[in-house]
Design a protein that fits this description.
The structure is a homodimer. Chain A is an alpha+beta fold and about 230 residues long. Helices cover about 45% and strands about 25% of the residues of chain A. The two termini of chain A are about 35 Å apart. Chain A binds a DNA duplex (30 and 30 nucleotides) through helix 8.
Chain lengths: ~230, ~230
DNA sequence: TACTCGCCTTGATGTTTATCAAGTCTAAAG
DNA sequence: CTTTAGACTTGATAAACATCAAGGCGAGTA
């Protein structure tokens, strides 16, 4: 790793308050690498060799079975993925690919396990990450089992819509095809769902979304912190 | 806690290899209690006061939203639940009730966090539990998004069916209503799904299930370790 | 300007799942 | 043995979602 890369990496919140020894251990066999857009990073079923940390770009985490495929999550800077497989030294349950050109930090799985063992700060941080990921997944299961695809979409839009004023707007952070897989429908159904949200003041044009009145959309979407608040 | 209760509790795999101090800390404010069948234990949205460990009986973990409700998992002896909420000191995302008369161990949330901090063995065990729970949930999401309800049911039956001989049978471990919520369908659809599995050699009569030929059912269900093997 | 390739939309149709309304069965209580 | 309440099934119908097949639309290219 180049020296200026290393200083950026060491400054990550991930490594904050760690002892020198643990950080050195982690970075010893680490890679810091750029990847082009639309590149496969890992494949489900493979042994967990590295813990991946997103420095820059967007990563799609997905699973396939038979001829079907679905997006589990879309990650951005600061997120790490497949921690559970690394910690348990088992195979990946999910695949991952870059959605955009990305920069990633790869930490060797063995070093991660060893660092968790010798550095309580890092161990605690990884446990926190696991617990947060666990809760995110519980929310995802509830989202899938307790809502229709239209409600999921409405709540996704509310999550993206910034600010607290009645009218807000934002730009799609990725393809509609990816969003469809994320919400758990086919692209065709997503398209129709957009049309169904027009009566609630949602306008889509190209890559931008306009919400006329947050409260009106909320009345349909019925968001609840127990599913939609990522900090809870 | 009564002395003979305490000796049973201390012998739990959960506490194995822990230092005296950590065990004492955990058991200081702990409760060891029997609950009748069909009793609400915790409610989603409440602060996480205790970590629950199942000693005996069956616990249904479920979530509700608006007028809908769904079963997330059904737990048995040795399982613990709502660990993530306890570790992060946040509210429960799920509710839980007894399905049968049950015996539970309740460990105070603060003591659990403190024990994780001071006892590396316990900390590691809890992290392992979190990671395993995380992977179970990933499988659950894949199961929901990549399979139809009929495929989920077929795979659930294969999971329950013991042994390796072609013909096997078992008894439903809980109500069909609960199974329906677990699989993610209404009781009516579950009933119809049973009928749809007859051509694949599945016979239901009362509380017992007979699978004529494992291989035939497998050909339809297409199980994969990445979703169906709880140890992977 | 025309052209072309992806992406997205729209329409027609089929499958999967939910809902409502009877019914049947079963097991426990009288 | 009858009664009865709850669990389960079955039928009819509607909603949600997927699939297949065109078509539109916009960003890049010539």
């Amino acid at each position: 790793m180049r020296p200026d890369d290393e200083s950026e990496v060491v400054a990550l919140p991930l490594f904050k308050d760690m002892k020198e020894e643990g950080v050195r251990l982690l970075l010893k066999g680490a890679y810091h690498q750029r990847f082009p857009s639309r590149i496969d990073l890992i494949q489900q079923g493979q042994p967990a060799d590295f813990l991946y940390v997103v420095m820059e770009g967007q990563i799609e985490v997905f699973s396939s079975h038979r001829d079907r495929e679905t997006t589990v999550s879309v990650l951005g800077p600061g997120d790490c993925f497949i921690l559970a497989a690394v910690f348990l030294d088992q195979v990946y349950l999910k695949s991952a690919r870059t959605l955009t050109s990305s920069r990633l930090l790869l930490l060797p799985a063995g070093a991660v396990r060893e660092a968790m063992r010798i550095d309580p700060v890092f161990g605690h941080r990884m446990a926190t990450e696991l617990a947060r990921g666990f809760r995110l997944l519980v929310k995802e299961v509830n989202n899938l089992k307790l809502r229709t695809s239209l409600e999921r979409l409405a709540n996704w839009i509310l999550q993206q819509a910034p600010g607290s004023s009645p009218e807000t707007s934002f730009i799609f952070p990725f393809d509609k095809k990816t969003l469809a897989a994320r919400v758990g429908v086919t692209p065709e159904v997503l398209s129709r769902n957009f049309a169904s949200l027009i009566p609630y003041g949602v306008t889509i044009s190209g890559k931008s979304v306009i919400v006329k009145d947050r409260a009106v959309l909320e009345q349909f979407a019925r968001p609840t912190p127990l599913i939609d608040d990522p900090t809870v």
